[in-house]
């Protein structure tokens, strides 16, 4: 086994890609700051029960676990930063009213989410705690879209759904946890035969509602159909009305945005408690960003208050973002001349990239393009176009 080989689905990020990712990270953090979100930096390791609070079985399977040699307790390497943000909101900040937090850091997954996916995404996310109204849901969706626009992605499509719709369909039906998990899987995979078998023995209204959910994806006609084909229950009515309200405001803010509805999309069902969304772009088979409302995430920390947020993988986003050219730089000779060294220092302090040609080596410029050089003219160090 070669010492330089990395584990499967783990990779180094080389200079050109690292620069693109870092520049994108800065743009996204600036967007979040423009909305009033405060940056937090949670640790990579935590006690396992804290990391998995209110997240369901799916995140448990994604989480690497190890034993702490100091305490003997089981630790987890974070696979998602949202529970950590909830812990910070609940115990370290413990503010009254609304708190807006954002973060950007690596997470680690036991298995890749797709054939070519990394097991070490660079997760960027934002959360609003303390407001139960749709205004917070809308703000988070708008920030997610603004972040994708900051990455210069076009032809965006947002799919809206709501976890309460399935809960409304199943209300009063004898469905245990194992059966519910299978129903969610069948809906997510749009497996009509499996869903029909799972619905056997349930009330007629529930069976009809489950069958209808498989067909309820598409444009605005989905909401009209939901009002007639799903059970007439207050939970479902409220969810449909809120989906309509959110879509109307998103269209006003982003005129070129394509909006769809997929009421059978149950990704993260155990995690979400209300409206949820996924954003897609041209050339991407998977969602670029996912988010929604998850009011139960802070319960284990003793502060069960409203929460809504989104996250995305900066590495995947950078791969899809339009390519940028090499960074502009200035070539300078290396020397002990005080005036030369002072000139180089002034240029760097002003934000310029200055590459000094070390003695005996040519300047390597794979990630930089030297379009100017520092030369001695008439006894003064001056810039000249290459």
TrEMBL record:
Pathways involved: Amino-acid biosynthesis; L-histidine biosynthesis; L-histidine from 5-phospho-alpha-D-ribose 1-diphosphate: step 1/9
Record flagged with keyword Cell membrane: no
Chief localisation class: cytoplasm
GO molecular function terms noted in the UniProt entry: glycosyltransferase activity
Top-level taxon: Bacteria
Pfam families (alphabetical): tRNA-synt_His
Keywords for the protein's UniProt record, in alphabetical order: Amino-acid biosynthesis, Cytoplasm, Glycosyltransferase, Histidine biosynthesis, Transferase
Subcellular location as annotated: Cytoplasm
Domain Class II Histidinyl-tRNA synthetase (HisRS)-like catalytic core: 9-317
Family annotation (InterPro entries): aa-tRNA-synth_II/BPL/LPL, HisRS-like_core, HisRS/HisZ, HisZ
PANTHER family assigned: HISTIDINE--TRNA LIGASE, MITOCHONDRIAL-RELATED, HISTIDYL-TRNA SYNTHETASE
Function per UniProt: Required for the first step of histidine biosynthesis. May allow the feedback regulation of ATP phosphoribosyltransferase activity by histidine.
Quaternary structure (record): Heteromultimer composed of HisG and HisZ subunits.
Xref: HAMAP family: HisZ
Note: This function is generally fulfilled by the C-terminal part of HisG, which is missing in some bacteria such as this one.
Family, per entry: Belongs to the class-II aminoacyl-tRNA synthetase family. HisZ subfamily.
Protein name as it appears in the record: ATP phosphoribosyltransferase regulatory subunit
